[in-house]
Amino acid sequence: DRAALPAPDLAGASRGRAPATPAEEILCGVFAEVLGLETVGADDSFFALGGDSIMSMLVVSRARRAGLVITSRQVFEEKTPAAIARVADTAGANGPGGAPDEPTGPVPLTPVMRGLAERAGPAALSGTFSQSVVLTAPDDLDLGRLTAALAALLDRHPVLGARLEADAGRLTVPSGDAAVPAGDLVARAGGRDVRRALREATDLLDPAAGIMLRAVWLADAGLVLVVAHHLVVDGVSWRVLVPDLAAAYRGEVLDPVPTSFRSWAENLAAEATGQARLDELPLWTRLLAGPQAVLGARPLDPARDTVAAGTRRADLTLPVPDTTALLTGVAEAFGAGVDDLLLAGLAAAVEEWRRTRGLRTPGGQLVDVESHGRADGDLGRTVGWCTAEHPVRLDAGAVDHAGVRAGGPAAARLVAHVAGRLRDVPGDGLGYGLLRHLNPDTAPMLAALPRAQIGFNYLGRFASASASGTTTSGTASGTTSSGTTSSGTTSSGSRASGTTSSRTVSAGAWRLAGEGAMSGAPDPRMAAVHALDASGFVHDGPDGPELTLSLTGPAGLWDEATLPDLAARWTAMLRGLIAYGAGGDGHAPGGGTPEADPSADDPGPDDLSADELEELADIAEGIGQGGL
Prior knowledge:
Elements: H1 22-35, H2 53-65, H3 72-78, H4 81-87, E1 105-108, H5 111-120, H6 123-126, E2 130-136, H7 143-156, E3 163-165, E4 170-173, E5 186-189, H8 194-203, E6 213-218, E7 223-229, H9 235-249, H10 261-271, H11 275-278, H12 281-288, E8 311-318, H13 320-334, H14 338-356, E9 365-371, E10 388-394, H15 401-405, H16 410-422, H17 430-438, H18 443-447, E11 454-462, E12 518-521, E13 532-541, E14 544-554, H19 562-583, H20 610-624
Parallel strand pairs: 5-6, 9-11, 11-13
Antiparallel strand pairs: 1-4, 2-7, 2-12, 3-4, 6-7, 8-14, 9-10, 13-14
């Protein structure tokens, strides 16, 4: 009875070997800080302790502050403080390092911006598509100091004052006095109605006029609301902005930003025409080619299926013991990421649901997988919409769905099969957006191919606390790149049953004001991009971490019962994967390591085809059933 088990006391658990070098000591401290743990050993894996790729960027920025230059990729590949310390660069952590980065000036629209405008309509960019946070205010909050803090935030992250030039296909980041003054973006409001204050602040956003940000001091409730247009923020950006706002209010000088959003966007535009990305075109073409079965009651219709027309939604939460196992051992045992396991469970759930209706999906379903888009480069302190999205073709393979639910060896077969499909994605996945939206020669070819009907986004983890005293170590962006809301918002952006009020405010300044304090609101005129959007995020509650799974879709495509049914199937499949991964010897058979980098001398999972991986999974099933 897993639900009856107490959650492990991860915060107080003793760790392994003590750090032996200054670099190891720094990294052990940074790991503990980011993960909310008391201590971390030099040989402890960041991911086995519950970290993910999004949180690894916090490790990068805080290590840099302490004098160590590392990358998110090094955290992913090396995993432990000891291994990362061996490849860390102690030179230039605080030095000039290369050509100066100019954050102001024209900024080309990125693939995610162009893609959303194409599918959801121009209101996705010119309207009020936004994200917001609700923070506890310090007891001594003063409107003048808040305005000064916001001015410091705008100065350090000038993209927050960008102007949209839709006809020119770009943003322009103004410098100095050309930006909208911070005093025009801050207001004090009475009462305790958070929903109303958020709605009013959102309605005042005007991308064409450079009003991308609004802050409201809700004095009677002791809250500060910050709303930003999605063009200038994503979920990762808030992990930078909230601690920076708190630091600026205390009068501290904000840390520099190694890579501006403008520089990053310009690099994407240049990369889109490079030969390395052009070489990926046949692979993307082959992946997208093939039939796509209708997923909902009818094909998606952008003229009818808008945000204003309404959405249906289903949420389910995994209990603390299951979530803890998933974060701290199961994913590692399968040699996969949490997002890989969520995708595997989703693929099985959708296929099982279709089979109960006598439907088949030959060739699988196309799924748009959203990521933070910051795997390469020093983007840990970059504010802006860096999100990336690429399609994968997913199916569950010839697995026994009941066996997966039961936590049997079929779980290994499912993960192996889906891992093989994920390896079909060319390179890092970023090339699709570059070729589809930034390269005029390749864009028409990819535009003519089928589009995914399902969107997927693993939003990451709300860690318990950051060094600044805020709860923003993890992320949970309030909207996906397609405009679907996540975590406590309705399709119109108003709060659902978990409305934040003065009663949910926790002690301490600049903390997220309870669960659901990060949210998003698509513009009502936006069209739905997918027939079904699936997302997951982890929230650290008082008793431990909980994973919430969400399914949303246009109301015209789904009846009231279907999405709850699908969500229940997804949860059941995932709990089966957790049971299998937690019940083995620490190595889930057949899973492999999707992102592994095997040596040249030894064959590894990247050297095997999907069919070969399935064959190995069959062998593993035989072992599990006593066949050998």
